[in-house]
Amino acid sequence: MKILSFDIEEWFHILDNKETKSVSEWSKFDSRIRLGMNLIYDILDKKEISATFFVVGWIAEKYPEIVKKISNLGFEIGSHTYSHQLIYEQSQKQFGNDLEKSIKLIENLTGKKVKCFRAPGFSVTENSLWAFESLIK
Question: pTM for this one?
Fold first, then answer.
């Protein structure tokens, strides 16, 4: 079995960086997501490879055509949260709201149920195991 996945986020969705941490700051930066996505689509098509795409909800909201194209090409889409923040720095309620927002955006764009999730920065730790309750919900 071959497994390939991509985190669909902007170059400025850098964790642990004060200057790019806030969603409100992101509109100040130039987007490069379309260039990256076109490269991925081309390579996957040429090599006839499938993949799962973990999409940041902010990307789904700002660039819905990207999510629709991923779905229309037959790839699975999972949530990578809405705001790409470290889970262990959030409360359970903050994380639950963020996760729900990302899932709703993706499902509304694709008409398909989101079945998978990837935490930003591997941020489900001993101190944030409560995140699994939100994921089950």
Answer: 0.93
